[in-house]
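Exercise 7. Given the encoded structure of a 223-residue chain, write a plausible sequence.
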């Protein structure tokens, strides 16, 4: 039997480590998150907001594309409200039937609605006017959900492909917002499996600190 050892490798009985594929790694990290208590999530949410608000990438921005955390995800609610209090225009995603993302404005708790998409968990989405998938290209920073990141800045997502479309849309529009992922401390791993279409993030925020990555040259896909 193998288990996630917090390093991005599965460990067998003889102690040898092998880089897992994305599906295996997602399952193992989600299992660890599932053991977090509501108190654990609340405590980390406050720390994440404080760290993120100190990022230069979020200083003086006019528009941020973000998301509402659900379940045991690293909490974003405190950060959303703090950004809004700064006067930042906060955009939140709404999942479309083809798994692309539309966007709407966050104006407080009463601007959210619970939506269940098929057999997935309930998501909190903007209840007001939809601005279209291209609205994300106006953001100066994009907060991406994720499960892990490595020293190259390569992010492991949930596997639905929605944010691959967002990143591709930004690239087509020649938009270059700061890409930031919020994670728990053990989710910074030595290596995350990456494919040619994957793009690195610029920074990761965890409850204990922040880390920046040099954006890979555009001539090096997946680098």
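Solution.
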């Amino acid at each position: 039997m193998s288990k996630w050892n917090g390093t991005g490798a599965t460990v067998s009985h003889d102690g040898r480590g092998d880089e897992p594929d994305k599906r295996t790694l997602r399952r193992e990290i989600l299992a660890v998150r599932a053991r977090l208590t509501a108190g654990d999530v609340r405590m980390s949410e406050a720390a994440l907001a404080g760290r993120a608000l100190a990022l230069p990438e979020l200083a003086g921005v006019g528009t941020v594309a973000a998301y509402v955390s659900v379940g045991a995800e690293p909490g974003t609610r405190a950060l959303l409200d703090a950004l809004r209090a700064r006067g930042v225009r906060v955009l939140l995603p709404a999942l479309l039937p083809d798994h692309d993302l539309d966007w709407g404005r966050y104006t407080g708790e009463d601007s959210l609605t619970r939506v269940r998409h098929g057999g997935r968990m309930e998501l909190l989405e903007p209840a007001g006017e939809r601005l279209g998938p291209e609205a994300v290209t106006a953001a100066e920073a994009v907060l991406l959900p994720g499960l892990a990141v490595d020293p190259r800045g390569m992010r492991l997502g949930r596997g639905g492909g929605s944010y691959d479309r967002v990143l591709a849309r930004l690239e087509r529009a020649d938009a270059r917002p700061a890409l930031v992922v919020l994670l728990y401390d053990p989710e910074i791993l030595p290596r995350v499996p990456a494919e040619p279409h994957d793009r690195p993030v610029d920074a990761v925020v965890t409850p204990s600190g922040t880390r920046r990555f040099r954006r890979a040259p555009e001539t090096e896909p997946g680098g």
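Remark. The first helix runs from residue 22 to 34. Students should compare their own answers with the one above.
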